[in-house]
Amino acid sequence: MPSLSQRISASLARASRWHLGEAVVWIAALAALLFWPTRHLLLNEIAIIALFAISLDLILGYAGIVSLGHAAFLGIGAYTAGLLAKHIIGDPLIGLAASILAAAVAGFLTSFLVLRGSDLTRLMVTLGVALVFGEVANQAAWLTGGADGLQGIVIGPLVGRFEFDLFGTTAFAYSLAILFIGFLIARRIVHSPFGLSLRAIRDNPLRAAALGIPANARLVAIYTVAAAYAGAAGALLAQTNQFVSLDVFDFHRSADVLLVLVIGGTGYLYGGIIGAVLFKVLQDVLAGITPEYWHFWIGLILVLLVLVGRERLQRGIAGVVASLIPGRTGRPRATAVDAGEARP
């Protein structure tokens, strides 16, 4: 009879296998690149938001850390890539690597503050961190451009061959490739013993500590990784737009990505992708119908979604995903934000 560790390893191996439904998702994304050229700019935004949502899901859905200031790392990544391109070198891959490193360092240094206290304390600390970084960028106008934004960013061709065009074709291909690579890495993380230990910490930190799991070290590690992902999303945002403003640190960036996960569900990586597609398409459609009042309508829909139809929609999405991806069963895990209450 196999031992417990062998059964766990076998279970993780089964969960990490690729299934037909997952292949369909990525083939559809590639098909959009090839056959939907008029919407590449919108698709590029969706890819960036999806990467940002995966970043937040790593700490919210898998580690139970609720954040209202995740835009801090998006902004650090964006300004790092923008400043590097403006003053040193315009190679997008070098800028991406530098942004990931800068955001990871910031995430590591701030993680020790975030891990203190309850969920409410963490909410306030994460929000405060984003506000501090935003104000630093505002005060350092000589470097960041302040309220006028960082202008004059020139991004070189991707791998020395592919210029960034006005139609967003290169931008979307670039963002989609980084999203896919990031997804593969995140998928490997969550289907590893490390990811299993994160879920144990999320569900019961005291029991996890009693089992010998170094809870704080694991949370610091995943918070750093999530910050690196957000930095990558910020770099893509800066490089594909060739402009950075203080808006990247704003609260609405953190709120939007949280809403993306509310729509798509937390605790499974495709939730961020599904939520990003639905949220951005909804935003684009409503902005086309009512350019002046689309904020009202999207707010109303989201309120109704959360108060009335959230559980039904999430069960429906989870059912579709479960039918396509055998390793995914049940509805998306409800978080403290979803339930309207904090965990003990």
Q: Keywords, please?
A:
mainly alpha; 15 helices; 72% helix; 344 residues; disordered C terminus; single chain
Descriptive overview:
The chain has 344 residues and is mainly alpha-helical. 72% of the residues lie in helices and 0% in strands. It contains 15 helices and no strands.
Radius of gyration: 20 Å
Weakly predicted, low-confidence segments = 325-344
Total count of helical runs of at least 4 residues: 15
E-strand count: 0
Question: Major beta sheet, specifics?
Answer: none
Helix vs. strand class: mainly alpha
Instruction: Work out the helicity level.
Output: over 70%
Q: CA-to-CA gap between the ends?
A: 38 Å
- What's the order of the H and E elements? HHHHHHHHHHHHHHH
Taken from the alpha-carbon principal axes, the silhouette is: globular
Give the SSE layout:
Layout: H1 4-15, H2 20-35, H3 40-60, H4 71-87, H5 92-114, H6 119-139, H7 141-144, H8 169-190, H9 193-203, H10 205-210, H11 215-241, H12 251-264, H13 270-289, H14 294-324, H15 336-339
Helix pairs in contact: 2-8, 3-8, 3-11, 3-12, 3-13, 4-5, 4-6, 4-11, 5-11, 8-11, 9-11, 12-13, 12-14, 13-14
Quick structural gist:
This protein has helices at residues 4-15, 20-35, 40-60, 71-87, 92-114, 119-139, 141-144, 169-190, 193-203, 205-210, 215-241, 251-264, 270-289, 294-324, 336-339. By secondary structure, it is an all-alpha fold. Helix 2 (20-35) runs antiparallel to helix 8, helix 3 (40-60) packs antiparallel against helix 11 and helix 9 (193-203) crosses helix 11 (215-241).
